[in-house]
Amino acid sequence: MQRLVRDIRHAWPWLLATALLCLAASMVLGLTLGAVPVRLAGLPAWLFGTADQQTQLILSQLRLPRVLLAAVVGALLAVCGSATQGLFRNTLADPSLIGVSAGAAAGASCVIVLLDQVQWSLWGLSLVSLGAFGGGLLVVMAVYRLARGASGTSVTTMLLAGMAFSFLAGALTNLLEFIADNHMLRRISLWRMGGLEGADLPRVALLAVVAAAVFLVLQRQHRALNALLLGESEARHLGVNVRNLQRTVIFCVALGMGVTVAAAGTIAFIGLVVPHMVRMLMGPDHRYLLPLSACVGALLLVLADTLARTLMAPTELPVGLVTAFIGAPVFISLLRRRAYGGIGP
């Protein structure tokens, strides 16, 4: 066991450096590919501001914000997924288990159907995005209050409450879809499939600040999350304040998932598959799991968004469809590998 831990520590910097290099390469690929291809040799001219006007417009106003948003959203989804799996002590847990995704969908649907004519934005987020964030936050607060008791916060009750409120929010969304007209219905459908077409630099800056804060808070809790994997009683014996840890993780996951769903809609499988893959490779130590998951999550979403923009160009596919088509088979193969004696915690 000690040799395995030592090998992981030695391999960790190389794995992180490799992931960062792959992420940088994927971002360059995302800048060059699209309905209007841009030659790789033209990127230096764009950086120095000497490219033609069309290239400057495409790269500066459209592709650069979109690639950056994909990287930030992917990293945040993967980090929230890692923390959720640590909180529930289950490598098959997903951040949407606490109801934030369903609540966000209901909030966005309410704005689309009930406030269709209102045009308002804040910090680069539209009213639909703010409605999604508010809906997700309300559901998480309700789930947490229901799961909190005199003896602390019950993770099992939280899971069941998240499922119940997810069904309730889903029923509200379906009701709104029933009364919506064709235009509203299409907006709701496209929003629920996820997309990064609304990317701009203010939105990227907002999400980057949130992502940095969430990552730093969770990274500081890596020892407590490792102790929690042994069980709540064992973690308390090791000096961990389990109740405060649960509050911190729930708040960070709710904040991270809320802003990602508000900015990009519902994007499936990144928060589930990426931490699971990294955990199989690196083990359950959150000191290494969280940073590497962030890099791999950013890499996968940048590549998925590039595919979404190029597979049927000039038509763009919703990026949530691409991540679902890629993530589901990958996750099934990982489950088969574990079932037939593959490695993995």
Descriptive account of the structure:
The chain has about 350 residues and is an all-alpha fold. It has a single domain (about 1-340), classed as ABC transporter involved in vitamin B12 uptake, BtuC. The chain is about 75% helix and about 0% strand. It contains 14 helices and four strands. It has helices at about 1-30, 45, 55-90, 100-115, 125-145, 155-180, 180-195, 200-220, 220-230, 230-235, 240-265, 270-280, 285-310, 320-340, and strands spanning about 120, 125, 150, 150-155. A two-stranded antiparallel ribbon has the order 1-2. The chain has a two-stranded antiparallel ribbon with strand order 3-4. The longest helix is centred in the N-terminal third of the chain and has 36 residues, at about 55-90. The radius of gyration is 21 Å and the shape is globular. The chain starts with a helix and ends in a 6-residue tail after the last helix. The mean pLDDT is about 85.
Please report the first level of CATH classification, the CATH class.
Mainly Alpha
The termini sit apart by 14 Å
CATH superfamily: ABC transporter involved in vitamin B12 uptake, BtuC
Largest sheet: 2 strands, antiparallel
Give the helix tally. Answer: 14
Mean pLDDT: 83
Give the total of beta strands.
4
Helical content band: over 70%
What does the overall shape look like?
globular
Our count of domains comes out at 1
Percent range for β-strand residues: under 5%
Provide the succession of SSEs: HHHHEEHEEHHHHHHHHH
Q: At the third CATH level, what is the topology name?
A: ABC transporter involved in vitamin B12 uptake, BtuC
Backbone CA Rg: 21 Å
Sheet with the most strands: spatial strand order: 1-2
Structural class: mainly alpha
